[in-house]
Amino acid sequence: MYLLNQKSTVEAQAIQAKKAGKVLSLLSTEDKNHALYTLAQSLEMEFEFILSANEKDLQAGREKGFNEAYMDRLALTKMRIFEFSDGLRQVAELDDPTGKILLSKTLENGLEVSKISVPLGVIGMIYEARPNVTVDATGLALKSGNAIILKGGSSAINSNRAIVEVMHRSLSDTKIPKETVQFIDSTNRETSQQLFTMREHIDVLIPRGGSSLIHEVVSNASVPVLETGVGNCHLYIDSEADGAMALKILLNAKTDRPAVCNAIETVIVHQDWLKKHKTDLIHTLVQNNINVHGDEHTLAEIPSAALADEQDWANEYLNLNIAMKVVQHVDEAIEHIECYGTKHSEAIITENGETAAHFMQRVDAAALYHNASTRFTDGGALGFGAEIGISTQKLHARGPMGLEALTTVKYIMTGNGQIR
Amino acid sequence: MYLLNQKSTVEAQAIQAKKAGKVLSLLSTEDKNHALYTLAQSLEMEFEFILSANEKDLQAGREKGFNEAYMDRLALTKMRIFEFSDGLRQVAELDDPTGKILLSKTLENGLEVSKISVPLGVIGMIYEARPNVTVDATGLALKSGNAIILKGGSSAINSNRAIVEVMHRSLSDTKIPKETVQFIDSTNRETSQQLFTMREHIDVLIPRGGSSLIHEVVSNASVPVLETGVGNCHLYIDSEADGAMALKILLNAKTDRPAVCNAIETVIVHQDWLKKHKTDLIHTLVQNNINVHGDEHTLAEIPSAALADEQDWANEYLNLNIAMKVVQHVDEAIEHIECYGTKHSEAIITENGETAAHFMQRVDAAALYHNASTRFTDGGALGFGAEIGISTQKLHARGPMGLEALTTVKYIMTGNGQIR
């Protein structure tokens, strides 16, 4: 009985979202921007209320013994709240992605054809620890004219509830109905699963988090999914790579923020380069506490490395471990990436333009780098404005997804009695 | 044991397709076009071989007592073969959708960013009776640099096998590896189901056929799906609709080709218009053998009509039956469409521009018509070139899908040592 009621609740919320989304979709850009500024101000004014809710989550997290990286993702500070609030203002400054005329022509029979960008409708956002996603995703959804259903991780439930409470109060002072933002106030796994199949009410699901969350959604949802972010990224250092550049990029791509999806997990090194730069490479790795798990060729050169197994090649470490493979040809690197890569970001360091072009053409991934760090795969860093996630799928949107990824199109045909 | 072997066969074919697709993806536009012209010529030269295989399917179909419309979809003639062969030449004439630079910019740090269209990879096409889909889909796939796995309906197996045999022989004279075109030579349902979950080898599934086929694929596939074509389309005749225009469009949209997805299934009539034009409407319906299933208001005006039930509103007739509802306001029509429409094509007939704009803004569908027939929702009719299907989903592609829908993008970043 409890489950039945809860199912009805989630479905009722989805229906509310759809209805409110229709009102939102008819609002002007100015009305939407005004609402975003209002939201930003409210979140800043009520930062203490949000922080005290966050403290409950942190307390529970400490009791559960979550690791440091996890606690860091969960933790809010006044500065973090002001950062995500300000993110709403930045979204307000971006172009409205809806109402754009993408095509306009008149057929020989006089029928006028136009293709116009419109909101998707209702977005289901399923995410993990970070409470800032609650605000980031809401801002992008509202700006693009979409309602949003938020299902955050159970460890952040108090923070998320407080943030949504502030946003709901704040939306009452705007033209956007507060029902456009629905919060699944439950730590129950079944409530997310209910979202998976609500094809009638939800237009797209966006899972954002670790690989097991994304796998669960992709495998079980009949609602279309925008798959984000598992990044088993590789850096290939070619025989003709500049030594200093290769080491600088390796260090940045591995250590700048090891826990994010655009960090590298494996370095593939050409044997000729390795012979020449072994001492510097080992020095760089040791100095920066990077632990190597290598193939046999690696171990022959770096005896302190552990022997890599299948898991080392296949999984994201998200920490200062790195897998290392030695190859004799760029094609071996390409084959390894094809086998283990997640089509996120892959890089080659080489001074040889032809080798780089060969790599770019043959590697199948959202983002490919020649002589630059994979860390740039990010809507902000690439100058695309805010992002709702990084797509590792091929349909609809690939790579960093901004406002445009939250729209679809309508073909509008105007005639004066045309028949076929 | 048998099933195990068959699974291996389908998987082996998918792996072959992926490998061959990589070779195809590197070919020039000229090489791909040359192959399409070669295929067209071969199919025309071997039309008798194809016709004799088709005769076996027709014979089996007659024995199974398939209805006339089904047999018509299955039947090939010399003319039909020449039509689909010529379709390949038309595809050759279209722009290559791959290798297009969709964005190109240099960031402040000097990193050059470009976004380039590339093939999806491997397309799984699951379809029903029409053997022409075998050729149409192959042509679009090859032109866009994709390998294709063809799983046609069991009733057309002999025709499809013969067509693929001719195409395979013909591809040996071109640079496109024949392994880019894989034919699942089985009438076994399980072989299509095996395609549903091969996420590693297949990039997209395109089901094309009746609603039960599409439903099966959408509900069970973990491979991304491009959903096509169930069209429960409506025509709304407003109080301010021109009488003659409304009747002309009603007739065309219902009777021109009742079995296709862009034909209308329901007419929604404003009561004021009905009062004025009742005699002409009844005359038109009777003269053209259109059977009406109406709501109570309809029955009050047209006593010969049958009473419509839930099925009449929800399902495609695909024949000369039509459902009819009488309303007092355009919003009632919009609500009905929202409840029963499949987001394919919806039309309004009115002389009032504001009412039309209201309808266009609020109805959620791929194609919306003001004073024109829904029959124009078709890549050819709208001048978009060939189409692989009409998308009724919102992600990736909506409405008629041409070559562009078979591509994705790569971001290519070129630097000189940039790090974050």
TrEMBL record, chains A, B:
Residues 7-287 form the Aldehyde dehydrogenase domain. One of its GO terms (molecular function) is glutamate-5-semialdehyde dehydrogenase activity. Keywords: Amino-acid biosynthesis, Cytoplasm, NADP, Oxidoreductase, Proline biosynthesis. Pathway: Amino-acid biosynthesis; L-proline biosynthesis; L-glutamate 5-semialdehyde from L-glutamate: step 2/2. It holds the Pfam family Aldedh. It catalyses: L-glutamate 5-semialdehyde + phosphate + NADP(+) = L-glutamyl 5-phosphate + NADPH + H(+). Its EC number is 1.2.1.41. Signal peptide: none annotated. It is an enzyme of class 1 (oxidoreductase). Catalyzes the NADPH-dependent reduction of L-glutamate 5-phosphate into L-glutamate 5-semialdehyde and phosphate. The product spontaneously undergoes cyclization to form 1-pyrroline-5-carboxylate. This is Gamma-glutamyl phosphate reductase. It comes from Neobacillus driksii. The gene is proA.
